[in-house]
């Protein structure tokens, strides 16, 4: 067993791709967060429902299958939703206590991180956030799964957890 857990939510698959890379790179355990009721597959419907993604707004999430007390190091990866972290990650951070854990955070996006890092700080007041990573993916329609930051930048971010 490892003392490191990767916790992620991915709407399009980009955050999942990075979470899997991190899992393989540092040999950590992994936990995928999921909404209790899946979001629509239609992007325009999701925009209509979540355009005003307020930090106070909640979505119910599925129960997790990990004992968080077994982990001292946490990697949080989620997508940026209308300039903040995803509602799924917000709900997780409101519902589960990560106090006194060493944490690195990342938010995937297509060009603007918004207040994602300040969202993490508000929701993790008693944790040690050791590093932030802006995971920029292409905004071009046919290349939305193409990451634009170098792999070395991800590796350097991971080193901050040690």
Tell me the layout of helices and strands.
Elements: E1 4-8, H1 14-26, E2 29-32, H2 43-50, E3 73-81, E4 84-85, H3 87-95, E5 102-109, H4 116-123, E6 128-136, H5 151-159
Parallel strand pairs: 1-2, 1-3, 3-5, 5-6
Antiparallel strand pairs: 3-4
Q: How many domains comprise the coordinates?
A: 1
Output the radius of gyration.
Answer: 15 Å
Note the beta-strand portion: 15-25%
Summarize the biggest pleated sheet: 6 strands, mixed
Low-confidence stretches: none
Short description:
This protein has five helices and six strands; from the N terminus they run E-H-E-H-E-E-H-E-H-E-H.
Give structural attributes.
162 residues, alpha/beta, Rossmann fold, six-stranded mixed beta sheet, 5 helices, 6 strands, globular
Describe the structure.
The protein is an alpha/beta fold and 162 residues long. It has a single domain (4-159), classed as Flavodoxin domain (Rossmann fold, 3-Layer(aba) Sandwich), CATH 3.40.50. 29% of the residues lie in helices and 23% in strands. It has 5 helices and 6 strands, in the order βαβαββαβαβα. The chain has helices spanning 14-26, 43-50, 87-95, 116-123, 151-159; strands at residues 4-8, 29-32, 73-81, 84-85, 102-109, 128-136. A hairpin with a 2-residue loop joins strand 3 and strand 4. The mean pLDDT is 90.
């Amino acid at each position: 067993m490892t003392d490191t857990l990767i916790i992620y939510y991915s709407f399009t698959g980009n955050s999942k791709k990075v979470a899997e890379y991190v899992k393989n790179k540092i040999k950590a355990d992994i936990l995928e967060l999921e909404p209790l009721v899946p979001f629509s597959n239609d992007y325009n419907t999701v925009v209509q429902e979540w355009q005003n993604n307020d930090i106070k707004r909640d979505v119910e999430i599925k129960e997790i299958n990990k004992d968080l007390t077994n982990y001292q190091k946490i990697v949080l990866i989620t997508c940026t939703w209308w300039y903040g972290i995803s509602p799924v990650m917000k709900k997780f951070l409101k519902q589960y206590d990560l106090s006194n854990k060493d944490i690195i955070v990342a938010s995937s996006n297509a060009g603007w991180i918004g207040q994602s890092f300040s969202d993490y700080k508000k929701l993790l007041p008693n944790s040690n956030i050791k590093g932030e990573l802006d995971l920029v993916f292409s905004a071009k329609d046919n290349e939305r799964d193409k990451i634009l930051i170098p792999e070395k930048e991800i590796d350097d971010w991971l080193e901050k957890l040690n």
